[in-house]
Amino acid sequence: MSVPDKSAFPTLNTPAGEIPADSPAWNPQRPSSMPHHRYQPAHDRVDVPLADAEREWPSRRIETAPLWVPVDLRDGNQALPEPMDTARKRRMFDLLCAMGFKEIEVAYPSASQTDFDFVRHLATSGAVAQDVTVSVFTPARPELIDRTIDSVAGLPRVLVHMYTPSAPTWRNVVLGRDRADLKKMILDAAGHLMHRAEQKLAGADVRFEFSPEVFNLTEPDFALDVCNSVTSLWDASPDRPVVINLPATVEISTPNVYADQIEYMHKHLDRRDAVILSVHPHNDRGTGVACAELAVLAGAQRVEGCLFGNGERTGNVDLVTLVLNLYTQGVNPMIDLSDIDAVRQVVEECIRIPVHVRHPYAGDLVHTAFSGTHQDAISKGLVRHAQEAEDLDVPASEAPWKVPYLPIDPADIGRTYEEVIRVNSQSGKGGIAHLLHAGQGLDLPQAMRPDFYRTVQQVTDDTGQELSGEELWKLFHAAYLAPVHDGPYVLDGWTTRQDGVEHEFTATVVSPDARTPVRGIGNGPLAALTNALVQAGVTVDILTYSEHATATGPDAPAAAYAYCRTAGQDVWGAGWDTSILTASVQAVMAAVNRAHGAARD
Ligand SMILES: CC(=O)SCCNC(=O)CCNC(=O)[C@H](O)C(C)(C)COP(=O)(O)OP(=O)(O)OC[C@H]1O[C@@H](n2cnc3c(N)ncnc32)[C@H](O)[C@@H]1OP(=O)(O)O
Ligand SMILES: CC(C)C(=O)C(=O)O
User: Fold this and answer.
1) Which of 25, 182, 280, 414 is the most buried (most CB within 10 A)?
2) How far is the CA of 140 from the centre of ligand 1 (A)?
3) Are residues 501 and 470 in the same domain?
4) Can you give the pTM of this predicted structure?
């Protein structure tokens, strides 16, 4: 094994002896030499005016779904190396509709001809159902507002979403405007938008949305002032509400700070019953989902995000995770994710970015346990689940879900149980038994499981590879079933006969040295078999024995397991046949051959 050259990491590990004086003895961490002093904490960058006594979100619960608004076709699209063309956009739009979204941001029509054309396509193709509102996005620039309005002509229900940056750095650096100047620019543009819509979209149901971009770094009094001025200008009313969308354009703080900011706005906005309070978290700190959830607790009624968290930089908040988080709290999420892989496939094909294997709910590996104790718990949990469903007299798909380590029933989102347990060197006997049960209907006796586990471990340790269910079955077959035909003692043409309580077993025992006709009597066929084997020089005690059908129906094979003491060893053998008697004889003979074969080797 090669050891890394430490000089390749010159900044790692500051010199010994620099443990901060206030560090407890149990914590030997040393200061990193990274320049953390360059960054300011959120509380030095923006005021959060919510008084402690005002704060209610920590004790609230989410009991209904907010209005989910996918922005995949705008915010998600503008972050793609290859933005979607009309065909891909249409595919995504149809998917979003099929999932149940009713308000969908479809484009930044003034950004490109492609975006403009897509909105025209929606307006002219009949793709938009009666109950779906199309949203389009525009900056506060008159000529771009005009282009945006032109794009939606003919659509019956439209939300026009206007944004301007409002945080100090953006005001100063990007726009070169002070607060008063920016407010004027916003109100001028909002007025222009309203009048243009009145002129050009007469007869359509047109509503407006305003976003103070980078709301989370904007002084709360300024954000409130601008939002209230806009809702007043647009004359927001309960029957024609305005959407006020408060984006965490770039995440800057722990989610509780965003929640405080949202609760402050929720409690202080004018015309509250005429405002739909919306949030639009990004995921720069990896806490977009937490921000959205706490924001809903804090009063948000609407959440903008993208499927699987596509979007600028680290992405928009992931709507799939949010929806299923709600679902797993027992709340109807109002969105259909019952075939998550189909959704994932369309999204991956449209945006050309794969979903990570560990992505919540949707990743290839998220319902899979490789580790032994998890597998054991899941396997027991699934058995208990089936039992509870039977006790409650409901289908398993309706019974309350309490399986350890699985926050959601994979079947609810179209996944199968096959992927739940996979076997490698980290796995244990429970998981191995589970796979054999799932694949072949085998119900391995508890006492046999450690025996097979050792065989499997040897293979997985040697190869470092995963074993599929089929490979496990082959291994089981080779270890316990095949020896019936492949060992020092093979039965040729055996028969049994029963006379009252007495059973007779006759056969010819073929060994490398001889063919020995044998006959034994016993109180059962296996007792008769072991008595017969004595005549061929084989002494065998059956220590435990069990059998079961592997499926329902007359043609289903039976499995039999025999633990036998013979040739000075205690060994397991198994049998597999449509006749239980044949399977049981095979199990004993397999054990005999495993022991005597090993004794000869
Ligand atoms: C957080 C977000 O997601 S916001 C949305 C971001 N999305 C996009 O930018 C994708 C689409 N954008 C584009 O196609 C282009 O940027 C366009 C068509 C909108 C504008 O293009 P251009 O006119 O070439 O301007 P450019 O992009 O270089 O610069 C932006 C200009 O708009 C100004 N601006 C930026 N945002 C806004 C806004 N919301 N309202 C008004 N003006 C704005 C900037 O100050 C800058 O003005 P300046 O030229 O006077 O310095
Ligand atoms: C809603 C808008 C302005 C946005 O995309 C953002 O702030 O991230």
Assistant:
1) 280
2) 9
3) no
4) 0.89
